[in-house]
Amino acid sequence: MANSQLYPLEVNPRTGEPFLRLKNHKTIIITPPRQEDTALYPAIMNDPRIYEWLGSPPSPYTADHAEAWYARVKATSDGALKDLEAAQESSDLILVGDCPVRAIREMKEDGTDIFIGDIGIMRSAGGKLMAPADADDDQKAKHAEENAARKLGDPKIAWTVGYYIIPSYHGRGIMTDALQTLLWEWAVPRMGVRYIVASAFEGNEGSLGVFRKNGFVQTRIIENHIETRGQWRNLTVMEWNMPGAEARPNSDSPDQ
Ligand SMILES: CC(C)(COP(=O)(O)OP(=O)(O)OC[C@H]1O[C@@H](n2cnc3c(N)ncnc32)[C@H](O)[C@@H]1OP(=O)(O)O)[C@@H](O)C(=O)NCCC(=O)NCCS
């Protein structure tokens, strides 16, 4: 019998793999990453329609980068599954620090599926986004340290989100649905997420649209945030507070 701690994830009866089905796009599911996905990452990450809007993946993106990324996300997914496994005797659903699923796949009628994108919700490590605009480097580092130290379940934890979807699937409402589903089905109830600080390069209307449609609001622009391929990029900071949840972390600090 499947571990009830996986709720609301479903389990593929054939492969035993857990998955989350999107609320509105019923043929789209989110699963753990798979080794076979690594063969696809380089072509996706070397496509200008993708890398143009991402600050962190290396460019050009090689098979080694793909393996390193896979090792990281697989370890995160496995860690969450291990915690859920360890709690399977508990009658209450536990909170976990990560999400076991992140690879977005379209299911075909013949039962196969294809990898079409990625979405991750994780604890924010970026002091720059969490600290006030005029904070110096020490203050930013302190915000990052405090956020890392907060106990799971603390509504003041700042989380963040990152995503992409392959270009042939853009503009069909899939990422709006993926974020909505992952946020409300897993992040809020199973990770205790109450506050998210995310960002997109200025001008990334697709990403800003996804955030806005999920109730994120723009709080500021960080000018000249990063230089990518010789171009300085401004960053649009988008924040989300769960309706009815406590105020965001910075709002009750005496140094605001
Ligand atoms: C950003 C991204 C994930 C959006 O995914 P998507 O599934 O195409 O987004 P949606 O279809 O849910 O669109 C959300 C909203 O933004 C709008 N939108 C989407 N792409 C747009 C674009 N290129 N220009 C203007 N608006 C756009 C949509 O029209 C929609 O609003 P609407 O419902 O009012 O029409 C996708 O474009 C992508 O992967 N881009 C490259 C990587 C990236 O930017 N990642 C995010 C980094 S912060």
From TrEMBL:
One of its GO terms (molecular function) is acyltransferase activity, transferring groups other than amino-acyl groups. InterPro entries: Acyl_CoA_acyltransferase, GNAT_dom. This is Acetyltransferase (GNAT) domain containing protein. PROSITE patterns: GNAT. SUPFAM superfamilies: Acyl-CoA N-acyltransferases (Nat). Pfam families: Acetyltransf_3. Residues 74-243 form the N-acetyltransferase domain.
